[in-house]
Amino acid sequence: PDQVNLVRRAYYYAEQAHDGQRRRSGEAYVTHPLAVANILADMHMDHQSLMAAMLHDVIEDTPTSADEIEARFGTRIATVVVEVSDDRSLDKATRKLRQIEHAPHLSPEAKLVKLADKICNLRDILSSPPVHWPLQRQQAYFDWSAQVIAGVRGVHPQLEAVFDTLYARRPDRG
Fold it and tell me: Nearest Cα to 110, choosing from 156, 174, 145?
């Protein structure tokens, strides 16, 4: 029960931090970190991995600091969240390149979150492509994701197979 409460606390914190943010689909943003955590829960990952998944975009997309995450959820969770967070002071192309470069050096926990995040994003694009994303941008996202995931391979073959199955469905026509 304590572990369940910790995961619940991480969810509520993410929900508050992302309050007012929306996904391109129009739904509340918190549905994304929840979906990422659900992917890991389906694979029976530990509660700390689920907490990090819930919080994975909080530093990147809200005013929340790593120190705040550490104070509320501990060093391990904060470390994983920092590892998977982009530095928003950099331009988008640099951030995308850094994800590719840094992926092989992530901790196993951060690799799991990164893998689940990309799985979630590919699922979303396949089921409901962003309205303003032409086919070429969708394909580019799939290809870039595959480059990122190449750096985390070996962490969880079953999740990697899920990614590969989704990647095989890469959009090829409009």
Answer: 156
